[in-house]
Amino acid sequence: MRRGGEGRSRLLLIILIVTALFLITLDLRGVGLLEGARQGTQTVLSPFQRAGSVVLTPFKNFFSDVTHLGRTQNQIEKLRSDNAILRSKLLQRKNADSQLAQLKNILDLAGTAGYKIVNARVISQGSSQSFSQTVTIDSGSNAGIKKNMTVLSEFGLAGVVKEVSPNSALISLATDPSFRIGIRIARSQQIGILSGRGNRSASLQLIDNLTSIKVGDVLLSRGSIANRPFVPGVPVGFVTAVDNSAGAIAQSATVHLYTDFSSLGVVAIVIGGTAVNPGDALVPAKPQPTPVPTVTIYVSPSPTPTK
Amino acid sequence: MMRQFSLALGQLFVVFIVQEAIVNQFRLPGGGFSLLLIFTLVWAVLSLPEIAAFIGFISGLFMDLSQSSSGPIGHWTLLMIAACYCVAYLGSGNDSLSGNPLGFTFLTTSAVFLVELAFVATGALLGVGSGSFGQILLTILGVSIWSLVVTPIFLPLFSYLHSLTFNTRSVI
User: Fold this and answer.
1) A 268-307 → B contacts, CB under 8 A
2) CA terminus-to-terminus distance, chain A
3) CATH classification at residue B75
4) Which domain holds residue B28?
5) What is the ipTM of this complex?
6) B76 contacts in A (CB within 8 Å)?
7) Structural domain contains residue A45
8) What would the pLDDT profile of A212-229 be if each residue is shown by its tens digit?
């Protein structure tokens, strides 16, 4: 009897493992049914994610404000009861203002290049248990979004559309380890490939080894055929370190991405590229140093010497 | 038995939704935690190995169906079957591990750490990019530390749900 139980247990384990291996094989062979299952799950999840985003916004803002509580602890405690409703409204307003500012900058960026865009709110961040860097947005194929479209933030490139469902889409961020983009250097027009590394610094591999790359060089997206997945001319980042190791086949560098992925609230998806390449028009202006007033003092000797 | 598995399936689905709709909303430092992973491993410690493997199968399937999963469908499923079976095998009959909250937390956190490590290793074999070495290390340590913090908080609830579902009397 015991042996029979052990046999059944072993059989169940084998069946489960074989099923998992079967699923992996099917997925790696690109069977559409499994891809559809993921999209179906996202369709089911997106209303929950949208609701969660709305409900949790005040709490998320609260957590970000916790670091500033120390300075005004006494004042907050004194006014807490009176201002509870007001604070809640203010937090929501703060969030709306921040999203509005992001949206304005995105529109400026897209307007300069002549991109046709669709704006969307970030409603969920992908779990990092799988080491991927993704976010979910609240617009999908119903808004004209398709797979492999460029995603912009207020500072430049944010990522690319990875999956689309009717009312939501999954964005693979530029920090994702599997993210690759063809870039050109604004100064020298050299081309290369940028790869995500899981954080805000990415690695750049130049195609040609003959020209040099310098710290501070600005990188722009090179663009793809029919503007998908990438439209040309989008600011990506700037070079922070150059690897000049002898014997390397191609020059490589470390790049700091323009987009602040930790505060990504609103993004724009480029649904129509421009017929004319914007060139270097979107290169961000270098920060102007604040002029320091200089005081010149003229001293003239008095005609009668003092004793 | 079917009723028990239906109940388990429903609860795993609810935890999956909570993970995707609530936990993922907070941008926690160090990668945050996976409630579904912790829930499954806690249940695995409390279950017999074959039941744990089945729970791992369902849970892994949910993880694979998540849009943020970078590996092929079946990747998490395979890992979770193995992890839950091993955890249940270690936990069953070993009261020093599964009988007290400290041992329980230690076992669950260690399992989270090893599962994440196994995900990176098998992901590399399947061609899944996981980022730089530093980033992987940071994420694995972050997720493990979060698990260490979160497991004791949810342990009473998870073990209570397990006892309700499988009609067992062991509640941590």
Assistant:
1) none
2) 121
3) 1.10.1760
4) 2-166
5) 0.84
6) 130
7) no
8) 788 888 999 988 888 888
